[in-house]
Specification:
With 166 residues, the protein is α+β, with helices and mostly antiparallel strands. The protein has helices at 13-30, 37-61, 109-131, 139-165; strands at 2-3, 9-10, 70-85, 92-107. The strands form 2 sheets. A two-stranded antiparallel ribbon has the order 1-2.
Length: 166
């Protein structure tokens, strides 16, 4: 053991390495996965963005739009059928007449850009931890990217469903 400035003995490198290896074996035995610092930072940012966009999407679908973050979208429904003669075949052709049925508020383009940034941050957290030799968990980064995708996919799914039903 070497002497430090205070007169005590400093722990040797072998002792520190042995303690780290013991802690590593203990953690592996418990089955607990630790989140890496890079993945933790990017994952938390991604989850925050996804949570905000999901809040904006749900509030818009419940007719409580967030000013500046939502924009109106009209669901078109078939009101009547219009008949006309085809100039090529001289037969009657039915053409549906669509009118505006219901208006819902969907996330704006700014929210869509935020979702892309959130997915990018989640992917960066995964890539950062996969680069290291001691790979750690990336649960928060993956959860953040999935939350961002769900946040923007929910209003799209509702719009498509209402358009098909209408």
């Amino acid at each position: 053991m070497s002497e430090d400035r205070r007169g005590g003995s400093a722990p040797s490198v072998d002792l520190i390495r042995a303690i780290r290896e013991r802690d590593e074996r203990k953690r592996k035995k418990e089955g607990r996965v630790q989140e890496g610092m890079g993945s933790l930072m990017f994952g938390v940012l991604s989850i925050a963005i996804g949570s905000f966009v999901l809040f904006v999407a749900v509030s818009g679908l419940l007719d409580r739009p967030v000013p500046g973050w939502t924009e109106p979208y009209s669901i078109m429904v078939v009101d009547d059928v219009e008949y006309s003669r085809s100039p090529w075949t001289n037969r009657l052709v039915a053409t549906p007449v669509k009118v505006e049925g219901r208006r819902i508020e969907v996330p704006s383009k700014t929210c869509a850009v935020m979702v892309l940034v959130g997915i990018g941050l989640g992917g960066a957290g995964v890539a950062l931890e996969q680069r290291k030799p001691r790979r750690r968990g990336v649960i928060l980064s993956v959860a953040g990217a999935v939350l961002c995708a769900v946040a923007i996919g929910l209003p799209l799914l509702v719009c498509v469903t209402l358009n098909l039903a209408g």
